[in-house]
Amino acid sequence: MVLSCGGTEQVEAPQATALPEEPALIPLPAQVSWESKAYVIPQQNTICYTGEGKEASQWLEALLSKAGVTVATQASGDCGNWKIEQDASLEGTLGEEGYQLSITDDGVLLKAASQAGLFYGIQTLRQMFPPEIEKQQLESQVVLRQALIEDQPEFAWRGTMVDVARSFFGLDYLKRHVDRMAMYKMNRLHLHLSDDQGWRIEIKGWPKLTEVGGKASVRRGRAGFLTQEEYKDLQDYALARNIIIIPEIDMPGHIYAALMSYPELNCDDYTNLTPKRATPPEMFQDYNVGWSKFCLENPEIYEFVNDVIGEMAEITKGPWIHIGGDEIEDPRYKEFVVKADSIVQTYGKTTIGWEEVTKAEVSSSLISQRWHGKVESVVKDIKTIHSLCSQLYLDHANIPGQENTNNWCKKDGVSLEDTYSFNSDDPNVIGVEAAVWSEFVLSDEMLDNRFWPRAIAAAEIGWTSGEKRNYDEFKQRLGKHGDRLRALDINFYRTPGVDWG
Ligand code: TNX
């Protein structure tokens, strides 16, 4: 109703609400049916939740407040234009992380068996709001397209790995990274916390690891480390977004940062190697791999391994500890792996290792992370995380010739399409993980450029089943995320062939 100058009331002609286009959801849900009808979000909203829906209702409240509408929340069943229903008995139909979202004339109903499922339903809704919401309060009314979505992931493991060891990325960056992963429904963050060039986690029983090893880095890289308090802070931040942290202490190779901090864990004089390597306590700033190792005949190293794994297990809420195990030859390698695996289990955790560890008689619960696909496990039916370097090593170039990238696995780089092209019928594969090694990734902007948008392709191959995926169609949906990625200030690589808007 509008008042005219003369004071007489005029009735505004009702305006047909324009139908919003079908939102470009990533990852593509298992089932969507879009209606040719709109739901206009009213000025006043009520959210009602059941079960453990409180956290989800808070995420929704935050989203709606940014849309500039008012919202009240109630812990009760049948009320409100936004309903959130958590009900464990839905697991049979929706799975552990699945959800059902329906948008009708009456409002929005979100159902899931778990908090994770509800969180993902809200991430889906988020992608239906205009991209500016990522940056600022919206000024105009939000109109949703009516729909029925039933969704659940193909794989339980949808991860990324950040190498914070070669070059350090701290709490602020890692929290932003968690936010971005969560938006695309990823749920595992693997931190490569130690390597030849640096040690990045406080270990109270071995303080020189961070006093000495924490100050080292690859050439021109950043040094630093996470205190245990910061690690726990990051972990809680991630868990609130359904992301579990997996700490990796890489052993018995890739261990020079520990050796420079505690030279008694060495037997070798590295000056005898060709080319010459650093010798403790000098730092190693170069790029070569496969040269350093613990003194495997010295029993003291197992005290170290026990203490470090013990402290990591104590501060880690997730069920896994990653022991590395890559790129090292030693007659005592298998013996080491078996011992380290059993130490992890002593602390109530499950071991993960790079695929080489499966040359040893490891426990059948161990999870192997496949990166070159050359090792045939000696233990049957080992669960596997797919991180094949030709598809998921995002330290490789986005496009042939990109500077500051590794190229040993694929000379022309790992394209968006390479990442997207994953398909597996191996029943032991539990999911995928996209990794960025940081020998040449020296700033936040560079790390953004390596992860995004290829990590979005990794998110989709982890969530959406192979039959539903089509690369050309994905590129079109991805382009529609350009505005959102820009609103989030992500320095993403503008992949040619994608219309970024
Ligand atoms: C191999 S793959 C490594 C890392 C390097 C990376 C560089 C694997 C388990 N180890 O130590 O950083 O290549 O791309």
Automatic annotation (TrEMBL):
Q: Some GO term, biological process aspect, for this entry: which one?
A: carbohydrate metabolic process
Say if the entry is tagged with keyword Hydrolase: yes
Q: Which InterPro entries match?
A: Beta_hexosaminidase_sua/sub, GH, Glyco_hydro_20_cat, Hex-like_dom2, HEX_bac_N
EC primary class? hydrolase
Q: What is its EC number?
A: 3.2.1.52
Q: Catalytic positions?
A: E327 (proton donor)
Q: Which UniProt keywords apply?
A: Glycosidase, Hydrolase
SUPFAM superfamilies (alphabetical): (Trans)glycosidases (SSF51445), beta-N-acetylhexosaminidase-like domain (SSF55545)
Per UniProt, residues of the Glycoside hydrolase family 20 catalytic domain are: 155-334
Which region is the signal sequence?
none
Q: Which GO terms describe its cellular component?
A: membrane
Domain Beta-hexosaminidase bacterial type N-terminal per the UniProt entry, residue ranges? 23-151
The highest taxon in the source lineage is Bacteria
Reaction equations catalysed: Hydrolysis of terminal non-reducing N-acetyl-D-hexosamine residues in N-acetyl-beta-D-hexosaminides
In its UniProt record, a GO molecular function of this protein is: beta-N-acetylhexosaminidase activity
| Family affiliation | Belongs to the glycosyl hydrolase 20 family.
Q: Any idea what this protein is called?
A: beta-N-acetylhexosaminidase
Q: Which organism is it from?
A: Salinimicrobium marinum
